[in-house]
Amino acid sequence: MTLLGAHIDQLDPIAEAQARGANLSQLFLGDPQGWKGPKVAYAGGAEALRADAEAAGVSLVVHAPYVLNVASTNNRIRIPSRQHLQKQLTAAAQIGALGVVVHGGHVTASDDPETGYQNWRKAVDGLSIDAPLLIENTAGGGNAMARGLEKIARLWDAISGSPNIDRVGFCLDTCHAHASGEQLLGLVERVKAITGRLDLVHVNDSRDAFDSGADRHANLGHGHCDPEGLADVIRTAGCPLVLETPGGVEEHLADLAWVRAALG
């Protein structure tokens, strides 16, 4: 059975999954725009969430805060980012999560991008990866580490020699891929040729045009993503699928129906 669900409110990810007829929930452990945490909001804490999720047959995925940037050349950003990412990984393992999704990050226009890739290698080397670390492709930014397949390949070249590489996977966001100028049709095969694996897909349509660089998600079938390409990613991914689309239960039910139709 395909693991399928949505990014939901962190208070009760089990009830949120059940309301959507889903078997997976993605959540933040704390403020997605802040440096505090992680914190398990579920009643009873991490131990209760792990036990209750297992009993309910609901898998969990943690999304790291957006502020983290382990590629940065600024010590005041890079070092806290590594420290906070370690906390997220440890907390994710405590709740039995399938992994922790983190954005690829970026360097500034005046930086050598190679420094950002090497900072990623140092981060992977130094982390205790208690739950799988899933690096996500991003939509925009000329100095982003994971915008488009060429840069993802450079990132994977940098980290592939790490002794921790077997604990590092890839999360493909369809809106981000579309916005970065990557055609969705056949994309799963092209990604796997670079990373050797695909661990999670964020199934999102895009409010903006192809190669726009804009990270603005839309409900499935209501955006600018090629619907045939989007369906192709869903069919060929062979991994858990997570919606990050607008709205609540009603909108997600419609999007989940779209995904199930694509799966056949």
- Estimate what percentage of residues fall within beta strands: 5-15%
> Within the CATH hierarchy, at the fold level, what is the topology?
TIM Barrel
Mean pLDDT: 97
Number of DSSP E strands: 10
Number of alpha- plus pi-helical segments: 9
CATH class: Alpha Beta
Helicity range: 25-40%
Helix/strand structural class = alpha/beta
- Count of distinct structural domains: 1
Q: Helix and strand string, N-terminal first?
A: EHEHEHEHEHEHHEEEHEH
CATH superfamily, called what? Answer: Divalent-metal-dependent TIM barrel enzymes
Which of globular, elongated, flat, extended, rod-shaped describes the shape?
globular
The order of strands across the largest sheet is 1-2-3-4-5-6-7-10
Give the CATH architecture.
Answer: Alpha-Beta Barrel
Explain what you see.
There is one protein chain. The protein is α/β, with parallel strands linked by helices and 264 residues long. It has a single domain, classed as TIM Barrel, CATH 3.20.20.150. Helix content is 39%, strand content 14%. The protein has helices at residues 13-19, 45-56, 75-94, 113-126, 149-159, 174-179, 187-195, 227-236, 249-263, and strands spanning 4-7, 24-27, 59-63, 100-103, 133-136, 168-173, 200-203, 205-206, 217-218, 241-243. An 8-stranded parallel beta barrel has the order 1-2-3-4-5-6-7-10, surrounded by 5 helices. Strands 8-9 form a two-stranded antiparallel sheet. Helix 4 (113-126) packs across helix 5 and helix 5 (149-159) packs parallel to helix 7. The model has no long low-confidence stretch (mean pLDDT 97).
